[in-house]
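Session log. Operator J.P. requested a structure for one protein chain; no other inputs attached. Running the standard single-chain path with token output.
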Amino acid sequence: MIHDLEIILHLVRSPVQSIDAVGVPVLSKGEDIANARIRFENGCIANITSSRISPERMRKIRVFQEDAYLSLDYENQTGEIYRRENGQITRDKVPIEREEPLKQQLISFVECASTGREPKVSGFQATAALELAVEITKRIGGIAKTIYFVAGEASADNHGAALMRELRKAEGDLCFVGRGGPQMKSIAGKEFRNWIARSGVLGLWEVIKHYGYFRKQFQQTLREIHEHKPNAVVLIDYPGFNLRLARALRAQLPSQKIIYYISPQVWAWNPARIKKMVHSLDLMLCLFPFEADLYNESGLRTLFVGHPLIEQLSEKKIDLERDPNLVGLFPGSRAREVRKIFPVLIKTVHELRRSKPHLRFEVASASSELAHEIERILKPRDRHLFSIKIGETYEIMRRAFVGIVASGSATLEAAYFRMPCAIVYKVAWSTYSAARLVVKVQHLGMPNVLVGREIVPEFIQHRAKPHDIAKAITRLIDDPEARQEMIAEFDKIAAELGGLGASERAAKAILAEIA
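Structure written below.
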């Protein structure tokens, strides 16, 4: 079969999208007849059938596409291609070499070894065919269980990859499919889609503007789950897409196992939706203790697994002496956030320098692209005031005396690294106005949400005034008691986040569901 797969990959020249394979026992306890259907991203479908009990040898390859059909019969040395052109069906003969492909490859290998010529089948092609054969064998033999993941943002890709690694440690032959980001794809392989660049939009207007794209992806995701028939669908955060997907899956595939990892913060914006989620989900895996209580009270089976952030940050938590003149600036991880928030931080820096001209400012950037956006916002006269650091968020949090942090996961990171800070956030007014209609919590920053009161000063939207932010930062610099009070609250929060092993606990819970 491997040699047939090499032929198919050579003919189609497109990444594999999905594999369906089945084996049937006839005369033995194993699979005597097997069929594999391979769907490619360019729309082609290849079909291979093999039998070890047929009285006649048979080797056929069939490749379908929208306007053509190719059939190769290696035993009878015949090949045909059918095309649809201008409403007419045409048929042409395809010449087939009479030598067995394996024999040809061996002869070619010997010739290449002696002459230095390039082989007919490269190592890359042979490896790709072997990997495909292994995946087909797993599906035929029922060896591997399949988990379909959906993650739509960079942080979810990070947590999803950690979860995949723990799942593989526990059960090495699991098959991962679905959609997420580059980290998850690097673990899952070819069939996994990296869609983060387009899926991770921010704000109401951006979602509306890309509605057509999301509608198409939603339908495609449903089709893929129907095709793969996974043992479980694991939805990671991303509630706008994933909660709708869960409802659709429950309606279309009532017996499908659906697990939600990193529970959506519906308790903040629509607690009534929790009761609806009971009917769509089989299991919720949450990061905060109070979430487990809330969901379980509503009848949704929920486990508190802890926050995966802890295991990622624990390796970075090295005690360093803080620089009393260093202020860390964390304007967000998305370009749209940076464009809204960083101008406020620039003005805040000028306010701070009026009374403390010796202060230095380091800006954390998640990528070189974001660094370019930050540089674009800076005026030439201000550039000497800021040092932009790419990929050094945690290092800055360990060294900075105080920080100004955009609301999001960075606020929990600041708490873990015990960096006193203020929280700032701004979005488009349409997004903010819509959010105010549905948000049911008093605070936006997670440290404040977890404690239930404002331990970190928040400056949100129209309250994000440079003078007020500078005043709060100055207090954290000058008042040791205020600093220590905030740090003590941060230590309590870190202790409640579950310690190390969150991804491992989540993996064990998922495997228990599909056992």
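Operator note: The two ends are 31 Å apart (CA to CA).
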